[in-house]
Design a protein that fits this description.
Elements lengths: L8 H8 L4 H8 L6 H8 L6 H6 L6 H8 L4 H8 L7 H8 L4 H8 L7 H8 L4 H8 L7 H8 L4 H8 L7 H8 L4 H9 L6 H8 L4 H8 L7 H8 L4 H8 L7 H8 L4 H4 L4
Helix pairs in contact: 1-3, 3-5, 6-8, 8-10, 10-12, 11-13, 12-14, 14-16, 15-17, 16-18, 17-19
Length: about 270
């Protein structure tokens, strides 16, 4: 039933009406389902079929409409997280859903590119929804990043700090100064951190965990930051830097080769 080579609509319809629910559930996963068969499964009496169908990567628009209005929150949640959900109308409906799990799944959907939807979710009352949006790689709006960097919940700011699309210099600067250690640590570990100024600030961070995260960041390009870390009093920081050899300048490699700790000399633990 879940074989993608099953292309015959007649065969699919036969399986969609099979008396065994396990067959219909397997069929609902099939990416080759005809739209008419999808509609049949969307009306199935077994409440395990629709949630499975909602996660199908090839859902027809009309079926998305049906499932977006389903009374089962599990169905709407699976649909909200489905990358094939590109309709702004149904994204907007799900962004207003009363169930926070539905809004969370929508918030981390990589197809969520509408500024209007992102703005709504960035203001959501549920911190988990805002955190899901903050870590979504489709979040490229500087305005949305700026708002989330000012969020009252540290979990949201930490999620943003590790977002691979974090490109705003102003937002990175704010996060580098965040009072929460986890926020700064996630930023230090983020390959999108390419600013020499931010790297040099974090290389002097009071928390060793932050400095260690920066030391192993493959985007560590500032020689000043590298030299600061190469002389760090914490051996784990120096060892992490030594293990990041491909990013290091020859001068810094030489400094580490002369380190008093054998593990640092050999390129990390």
């Amino acid at each position: 039933a879940c074989n993608p080579s099953l292309s015959s609509e007649a065969a699919q319809q036969t399986l969609a009406q099979d008396q065994h629910s396990s067959v219909r559930i397997s069929l609902a996963k099939n990416p080759s389902l005809a739209p008419a068969v999808q509609q049949t499964l969307a009306q199935d009496q077994d409440d395990r079929v629709q949630p499975t169908l909602a996660g199908n990567p090839c859902l027809a628009p009309a079926v998305q409409q049906t499932l977006a209005q389903d009374q089962n929150a599990g169905v709407r949640s699976n649909l909200a997280g489905n990358p094939c959900l590109t309709s702004e109308a149904w994204q907007e409906r799900l962004a207003r859903d009363q169930n926070e799990w539905v809004r969370r799944d929508l918030a981390h959907n990589p197809s969520l590119i509408s500024n209007a939807r992102q703005k709504r979710l960035a203001q959501d009352k549920d911190a988990e929804v805002r955190a899901a949006l903050a870590r979504n790689p489709s979040l490229i709006s500087n305005a949305r990043q700026k708002r989330l960097a000012q969020d009252k919940d540290a979990e949201v700011r930490a999620a943003l700090a590790r977002n691979p699309s974090l490109s705003s210099e102003a937002t990175q600067q704010r996060l580098a100064q965040d009072q929460d250690t986890e926020v700064r640590r996630h930023l230090a570990d983020n390959p999108s951190l390419t600013s020499d100024a931010r790297q040099e600030r974090l290389a002097r961070d009071q928390n060793a965990g932050v400095r260690k995260a920066l030391a192993r960041n493959p985007s560590l390009s500032s020689e000043a930051a590298q030299q600061t870390l190469a002389r760090d009093q914490n051996v784990e920081v120096r060892a992490a830097l030594a293990g990041n050899r491909s990013s290091l300048t020859p001068a810094v490699q030489q400094t580490l080769a002369q380190d008093q700790n054998i593990f640092v000399q050999l390129g990390g633990f």
